[in-house]
Specification:
Shape: globular
Distance between the termini: 24 Å
CATH class: Alpha Beta
Number of domains: 1
Radius of gyration: 15 Å
Bound molecules: coenzyme A
CATH superfamily: Gcn5-related N-acetyltransferase (GNAT)
Length: about 170
């Protein structure tokens, strides 16, 4: 699996994925405004397409929540990252692709030695995704309402990630 930057050439793909019921259910109230956003390249954001053997299977976004321009996350400490992820096609769910996407994205975040922790905000009702994040090592911070969405915020500390990964290598 490879993560590569999303570009305007991915517009149709991302719009098609946005219509998938499992994608809508996980993020019912956001408009990602792909037509505009794919043409931008702010230094506080990476929008990435995951490809397996050259076939696009999912999307992942990494932001610096302190610098992100809408201040979705409110006032944040410096040196954090926040991730959004989805698998595009229903047929590709539950095959381990999401786990590998997260592993690569987390490594990408912590490759910057200043980054201390990563945040995610699944809907409180998205129990499948919450189990997925908990298995990776994210720890519950607490419930938080973002706009119309009741979410559960999770956080993965650099030290927690490094520890759990060095244990796996033992
Ligand atoms: C969450 C998501 C990225 C995980 O990727 P994945 O490739 O399906 O996950 P993996 O195969 O690596 O791991 C399987 C685990 O993912 C979780 N999962 C979440 N949604 C799932 C789904 N619709 N189908 C199967 N597994 C799902 C489960 O916890 C599953 O573990 P289980 O065996 O305990 O049920 C993916 O399921 C997805 O895109 N879901 C819809 C969008 C979404 O919820 N995104 C997160 C928003 S915060």
């Amino acid at each position: 699996m490879k993560l590569r930057p999303a570009t305007l050439k991915d517009l149709d793909l991302l719009q098609r994925w946005d219509e998938q019921p499992h994608v809508i259910e996980s993020d019912p109230n956001d408009d990602w405004d792909w037509t505009n956003e794919l043409g931008l390249n702010p230094d506080w954001r990476e929008q990435l397409i995951a490809e397996v053997d050259g076939r696009p299977i999912g999307f992942i976004q990494i932001i610096d929540p302190r610098e992100e321009e809408t201040h979705y996350w409110g006032d944040c400490e410096p040196n954090l990252r926040a991730i959004d992820i989805w698998i595009g096609g229903e047929e590709d769910l539950g095959k381990g692709f999401g786990g590998e996407m997260m592993r690569q994205a987390i490594e990408r975040c912590f490759a910057n030695p200043n980054v201390t922790a990563i945040l995610i905000d699944p809907l409180e009702s998205n129990t499948d995704a919450r189990r997925f994040y908990e298995r990776i090592g994210f720890e519950e911070v607490g419930p938080r309402r973002f706009g119309e969405d009741d979410c559960m915020v999770y956080r993965l500390e650099r030290a927690g990630w490094l520890n759990s990964n060095s244990r796996k290598d033992d």
